[in-house]
Amino acid sequence: MKILIINPNSTASMTHKIGEVALRIAAPGTTVRTVNPPDSPASIECHTEEALCVPGLLRCIQEAEAQGYDAYVIACFGDPGLDAAREQARGPVIGIAEAAMHAASMVANSFSVVTTLERTVGMAWHLAERYGMQRFCRNVRAADLPVLDLEDPSKNARTLIRDECLRALREDRCESIVLGCAGMTDLCRSLSDEIGAPVIDGVAVAVKLVESLVTLGLRTSKLGDWATPPLKPACATLASGSGS
Ligand code: 5HY
Prior knowledge:
Helix content: 40-55%
Largest sheet: 4 strands, parallel
Distance between the termini: 21 Å
CATH architecture of the largest domain: 3-Layer(aba) Sandwich
Bound molecules: [(4R)-2,5-dioxoimidazolidin-4-yl]acetic acid
Strand content: 5-15%
Radius of gyration: 17 Å
Oligomer: single chain
Shape: globular
Structural class: alpha/beta
Order of helices and strands: EHEHEHEHEHEHEHEHH
Number of domains: 2
């Protein structure tokens, strides 16, 4: 089984970190490759950056389709381009927010999302609505941390996130935490141990979910909404770029 994980931002250190966690969690026999488009924003922190990262993300999927990949994970908490990615792919495509919120709803009666910047709080709420997860989502909280500070050891990111998780448990009375950024993937296990509640990282969950779907022989339905798009010139030119 071949799974492609796409970090839609162009920060290679984050892509590497995501790849390490995915390799650790994947089953023996699963080939995991982690890529990022070279030409997307360095971090994705608003709707515009989400829109800008989508062409590169779709190019990664088109190329991987030609190489016979079985499934895809979109490793950015906004799940950018998820519907378009599903149009391009034969196999399953899962976004990490989608994966994490569903997993949280199965191991706890409620969750709060702890994300990076205040301005992405609304985006996470939109996703909770989209996935029917509002019933479980107590709150979306920001640690007031730019995404790229997660890559800088001097910024004390883990402490800020840990403190926000503890506030969420106390003030929201939530029973679990969903980490709201792919760049937090390496913190999941230790935070969970430290705060004494399930902490859910969408990267790890999405890898296990796509593995399961592929094992079950499930692919993306091509009967309606996610049918392969008509090959008009704009769609065809996507294939002219490449991932790194
Ligand atoms: C992410 N941005 O997972 C998102 C989430 C966030 O560059 N990778 C990004 O923090 O808003």
